[in-house]
Amino acid sequence: MALLYAIVGNIERARFMLESGVPYLQLRFKDRPLAPLRAEIRAWKSRYPATRVIVNDSLEEALAVEAWGLHLGQEDADRYAPKRLQALSEGGGPVLGISTHDNFEFARAKSLGAAMVGFGPVFDTSTKVLTRKPQGVDRLASAVKEFDLPVIAIGGIGEDTLDAVADTGVAMIAMIAYLDRLSTYEDVQVLAKRIRR
Prior knowledge:
Number of helices: 10
Number of strands: 8
Strand order of the largest sheet: 1-2-3-4-5-6-7-8
């Protein structure tokens, strides 16, 4: 059973997803700092207890907003001493997720204390400049079997590919562009239910 992992680029979409009741919400605010929003984001924990909020790229911001999780790309992880990341799992800090593209990167993520890993891009995506070829559903299914951590599928997942991705046994399905097209809470809830099937 997979869960919806919503990724948003601004505070308005974050609020919309919270009201929709998404189980996971990653804040990937590339053009706006989180600092002015810290008090609001900290309050989400009590206001929206069913949603786990994850901060992208910044351990400092994840700690400042008391986020449930932190997600780092492979290059982002280089900014932190391995011992600092490893200590998160021991010290009650945010749950660490790290992006991976192959078995080597998975082993590195695990050594840094990751509790879950992103895997992709599964398909071509318009939300990020790709430095790697799409992995495809078959490779995703292999990763789910090979990796002994929960896998978050990411990259170009939409209406036509959603079921095939969910059938691989991934723990979470990350969506960005497809979610941006949804305009009602009910639309998001129907999507989340479809993923959970």
